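Lecture notes, structural biology module. Today: joint structure prediction for complexes of two components.
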Amino acid sequence: MKKKLVASVLAAAMVLPLAACGNNGGGDSTSQSSQSSQVASSTAGSESSSGGGAGTETTEAYFPLKDSVTVTIAGRREDAETAMSERQIFKDLEEQTNLKVDWIDWPGSQFGEKQGLAFSGGTFPDAMMGNFILSTTELVKKGAEGWLMTWNDYINEEYMPNFYALCQRAPGLLESITAADGNIYGLPQFDMVGLSITNDTLVINTEWLEKVDKEMPTTIEEFYDVLKAFKEAGDLNGNGKADEIPFTFQFNAGNNGQLSFMGFTGLAYNTQHERVCYKDGKVVYVPQEEEYKEFLIYMNRLYSEGLIDPECFTMDQSTYNAKTQTPEPTCGVISIWDAARINAPIAGNDPEQPGVYQYLAPLDGENGKDPVWIPRYTPYNRAFCFVVSADTEYKEELVRWADLFYDLDTSIMNSKGVVGIHIEEKGDHVYEAIKKEDGSNWSTAEKSSYITLDDGMYGIAEGDCEMITQDTPQSKASANPLYEPYFNPNHVYTYALMSEEEAELDSLLKPELVKYVDTWTTDFITNGNIEARWDEYVNGLKKLRVDEFIQLYEAIGARSSRK
Amino acid sequence: MSAGTAKVTSNRIKESRDNLLFDIFVYTFLTIALIVVLYPLYFVVIASFSDPYMVLRGDVIWYPKGITFGSYEKIFQNADIWIGYVNSIKYTVVGTLLNVVLTVFLAYPLSRSYFCLRKPFTLIVLVTMYFGGGMIPTYILVNKLGLRNTMGSLIFVGAVSAYNVIIARTFFQSNIPSELEEAAEIDGCTKGRFFFSFVPQLSKSIVAVLSLYYAVGHWNDYMKGLLYIDKREMYPLQLILRGILMEGQGLANDFADVDEIEAKLKLAESLKYGVIIVAVIPPLLLYPFIQRYFIKGVMIGSLKG
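The predicted structure, tokenised, for the full assembly:
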């Protein structure tokens, strides 16, 4: 009896999906084919409109190639995105240039292994393309080892008119992609329009604030009082369960973490800063500074009184999202990307309303120091995206092909979307995103059947175009006026590319320091006794050669475009 | 089985207290073990029908909550999964066929005592159990042979497993005695005829065991696909499943679009359990048919080495 039931359930499970798949598959493919013809015309449109621009003439004379050439390019993409070989943009490009690309597919989940094999197994393709195709450290290493073609001789008006023009529009870009040995090993993605200026923001539950009869806190003492009041008020969300958490964050997470919150001490960093920053014009390693101790003592005080989420050290992002985005609020203060995502499940998605959770301005440490908040993107988005093999026969073809992507209209298409499908032109280079027919936004996976998105090169300098966004009290842009005054350019660390030796030393020192600091930080916050153990902790840092690490970053920072 | 025996004995002789206590202990222990093994499977099933965020918050424990078929809908809409499904079935069927044929061809001669090179060949097979070329050299070899991005790389690499050869050899040794072969020879049967007409009849159970081992191996194979295949239309199912589960995980850098990451994480969470169910259905369907051979075949193959 039981066996039969299982068998019939399995049989049903097998049949149903097949039927469903048949239907959906059919529907999808028809709608897709009708849209892809649209893309073809709009791509062609943008290509021809750019034809009149300066510098394109040499390229036009070069492409289409008289004799078709086939190059092998490995393309990194996210798993949900369309494979490079099936994207409309590359089909169009192939027609226009007569340069055929034999794509090697590297989905994100396989990327590390496949790229490793390409280097060690002797199957290095003519070029590699994709978001962070080589980290800056790998780039200088592989470059110095002679794997990669150098671009120095090609970045000029003759070979790369579009990229050259971009470098004129974006001063500092060229320096920031030049390695310490003076070579340029890869091409970047560069887009300075429509960026968010912060990573993490603090939001506070105003409903609870009213219930406990407190004002928006402005100093850390008031903040402590508010958390304490949240804790003592008990069942604030009225669900009968003791599930209220006064303050939650995801330890060390760039967008949900405690990193900018630390700024009340006067020092802070975010994930891209390797825990260093400038203090009085000198590079310091934040975790060994007095400010860090002050932060730890404060956090320990919150922790020991049960004001911090005890899960903050262990949650992954999915758990954190699930915890913070609940229909009935369970958290008092949350460190999060923006307020809209946590208000939506509570009050429905009405972005015009301020919502239950509102942005909380950086707190004053009352220690005589100016509080800081960490800005996003410092100083550039230096995501290297395209490298060419030193051994390829088709250097010139690849250089000129790559340059096509830096044409402004092509860049806007690849970064923001296809005009007429994903975005709408509202004026001269002023765009607004279009929603899908059902009112939802286009996801990157959907857009990727047309264009490269972050898997390809683009170059948009400040002022090249404008994106119209509807700012609401909940959207991230509304938080900007609160946080922007606390950005301190003299404080935030800025990079240049490392040399091979520097990269080597960095990879030797950094992981040990990170592990050590994280272990101690967790221990300090949960167990306290900080004053007594601080010297022991700092001595440990010295043994892990923290001074050398500081010197290293001092040297790197000195070469950066920060003047 | 043991329940039956217990009943029979209790009818005949009065059970002693000790035996009863022992039985209680055994049954309690086994029940706990059963729950420990079964619960995760049960959880996967109920989680696949529940609201992913409720699963993440730990609300789903005994029964599905916020019942939704969203994850199955998404799975069946995902073209990649079906490509992977078809590919994996193809690789499994062809690969298993080749594996079994080659293994039997190798194991049979090694089981015959009159085969003069038996010892050196057995040694050669054994050596491969302990020493391999390593990943990179194998990769270079496959590349030089021109097998990358072909089905060949998935079915020829590791086509014969030394472990299975030894199981099969032991089986042949003990189940196909040389007396039988001699008797057939007296009736005028050649060695070749014997191999093709008698051996298959007598070795159904070992073939079933080998097929299951190899088929499950092919179905679950992730590494070979990862190393040798880089065309989307050729990915086996496991690569695609891992891709779905990893979605949004490696993206937590400071430059990525946060809304996208969250959407992807949510998708991965919602697909996770459904995908596991979908992926285990084919092996599950295979087991009931092979199971009866399975137990017999493995016992014969391994114990009398």
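Point to remember: Chain B has two domains: 2-68, 72-303.
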